[in-house]
C-alpha cells in the first residue's frame, strides 16, 4: 500500500514567486537602466569601486532575469508524464548560477583592487560621488521591492541577496567618493572595492551551498531525519521503519518517501493516515510516499541497510 500526494503543494511553493513577478520585473528594469549609467560613469571617473558596483549591477540584471525566466517556466510548464515534477527545479539552477556569477565577480574585484593598490590611478571624485548616490537610491527601491519575498523562494532570495550586496556596495562607493573628494587619498577606491568583494563573497558561497544541497537531494537542514525516523517508529501500528528519504524539490516543497512495516493485526489504513499526519503536521512534509508493508513481509537485504 502506498500513497503520494498530488502537486498542490508544488503550486503553493511557486505561488510566492508568481506573486512577486511584477516586483521582479520592476527591479529588473530599474537596475538594468542604471547599470548603463554607472558603467559609463565608472569609465569616465576611472573608479574601480564604481565599475565593480556596475559589474555587480550587471549580475543583478542577469540574476533577476534568470529568476523571472525560472518563475515563468515553472508556472507555464505543467507536470506531464515525462516531467512529473514539471520544471520546479529551474529555480534552484537559477539560484546556483546567480551564486556562481557573484563569486566570479567578487574574485575579480578583489584581484583587480589588490593590483591597483600598488599604483592607484587618478580617480574623479565628483562624478563618482554623484553616481554613487544615485545608485544607492536605485538599490534602495529594488531592495524594498524584493524584501518581502526573500523567505518564500530560494530563487527570489538569490535576487534579493544580490540587490542587498549591491546596496551595501553603493554605500561603500559613496563613502569612498566622499573620502577621495575631501582628502585626495587615491587608494581609498581600491580599498573599498576590496571591501565590496569581501562582502559579496561569503553571501554568494552560502547561496551556492543551499542550491547544491538541494541538487544533491540532501535532507533539509531544518529536518532531523533521525528524529523523524524515531517518531515514525512510535506511530501506533508501526513495527519497523526503513528506506526513509527526505529531500527538497524546490523552495517550500519538501518531499519524503518511507517504508513502514505493520505490527501484527494492525490496521494499514489507520497507520497510513497517522504516518501522513505526522509528516504533514510536525515536519511540514505534504508530499510524501509511504509504503505500508504487512508484518509478514520478507524484506530485502538492501532495504535492511536503510533500517532506522
Give your account of this protein's structure.
The chain is mainly alpha-helical and 308 residues long. It has helices at 8-19, 21-45, 48-76, 90-118, 125-147, 154-183, 188-215, 225-233, 268-283, 301-305, and strands at 238-250, 253-262, 287-293. The chain is 67% helix and 10% strand. Strands 1-2-3 form a three-stranded mixed sheet. The chain starts with 7 loop residues before the first helix and ends with a helix. Mean pLDDT is 79; it is low at 1-14.
List the helices and strands and how they pair.
Layout: H1 8-19, H2 21-45, H3 48-76, H4 90-118, H5 125-147, H6 154-183, H7 188-215, H8 225-233, E1 238-250, E2 253-262, H9 268-283, E3 287-293, H10 301-305
Helix pairs in contact: 1-3, 2-3, 2-5, 3-4, 3-6, 3-7, 4-6, 4-7, 5-6, 6-7
Mean pLDDT: 79
Spans of 5+ residues with little confidence (pLDDT < 50)?
Answer: 1-14
The fraction of residues assigned to DSSP E strands is 5-15%
Radius of gyration: 25 Å
Instruction: Please give the number of β-strands.
Output: 3
Following the backbone from N to C, one meets helices and strands in this order, namely HHHHHHHHEEHEH
Approximate helicity band: 55-70%
Short description:
With 308 residues, this protein is mostly helical. Helices cover 67% and strands 10% of the residues.
Amino acid at each position: 500500500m502506498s500513497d503520494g500526494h498530488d502537486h498542490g503543494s508544488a503550486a503553493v511553493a511557486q505561488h510566492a514567486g508568481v506573486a512577486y513577478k511584477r516586483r521582479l520585473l520592476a527591479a529588473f528594469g530599474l537596475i538594468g537602466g542604471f547599470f548603463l549609467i554607472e558603467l559609463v560613469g565608472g569609465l569616465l571617473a576611472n573608479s574601480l569601486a564604481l565599475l565593480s558596483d556596475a559589474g555587480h549591477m550587471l549580475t543583478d540584471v542577469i540574476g533577476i532575469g534568470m529568476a523571472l525566466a525560472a518563475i515563468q517556466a515553472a508556472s507555464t510548464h505543467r507536470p506531464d508524464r515525462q516531467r512529473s515534477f514539471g520544471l520546479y527545479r529551474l529555480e534552484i539552477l537559477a539560484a546556483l548560477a546567480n551564486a556562481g556569477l557573484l563569486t566570479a565577480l567578487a574574485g575579480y574585484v578583489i584581484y583587480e583592487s589588490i593590483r591597483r593598490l600598488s599604483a592607484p590611478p587618478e580617480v574623479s571624485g565628483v562624478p563618482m560621488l554623484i553616481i554613487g548616490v544615485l545608485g544607492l537610491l536605485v538599490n534602495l527601491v529594488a531592495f524594498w521591492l524584493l524584501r518581502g519575498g526573500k523567505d518564500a523562494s530560494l530563487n527570489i532570495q538569490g535576487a534579493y541577496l544580490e540587490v542587498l550586496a549591491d546596496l551595501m556596495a553603493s554605500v561603500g562607493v559613496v563613502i569612498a567618493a566622499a573620502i577621495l573628494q575631501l582628502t585626495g587619498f587615491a587608494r581609498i577606491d581600491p580599498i573599498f572595492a576590496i571591501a565590496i568583494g569581501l562582502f559579496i563573497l561569503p553571501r554568494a558561497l552560502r547561496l551556492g551551498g543551499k542550491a547544491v544541497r538541494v541538487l544533491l537531494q540532501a535532507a533539509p537542514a531544518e529536518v532531523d531525519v533521525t528524529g523523524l525516523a524515531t517518531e515514525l517508529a512510535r506511530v501506533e501500528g508501526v513495527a519497523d521503519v526503513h528506506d526513509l528519504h527526505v529531500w527538497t524539490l524546490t523552495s517550500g516543497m519538501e518531499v519524503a518517501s518511507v517504508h513502514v512495516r505493520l505490527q501484527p493485526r494492525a490496521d494499514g489504513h489507520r497507520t497510513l493516515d497517522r504516518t501522513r499526519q505526522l509528516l504533514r503536521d510536525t515536519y511540514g512534509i505534504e508530499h510524501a510516499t509511504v509504503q505500508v508493508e504487512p508484518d509478514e513481509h520478507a524484506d530485502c537485504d538492501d532495504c535492511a541497510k536503510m533500517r532506522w
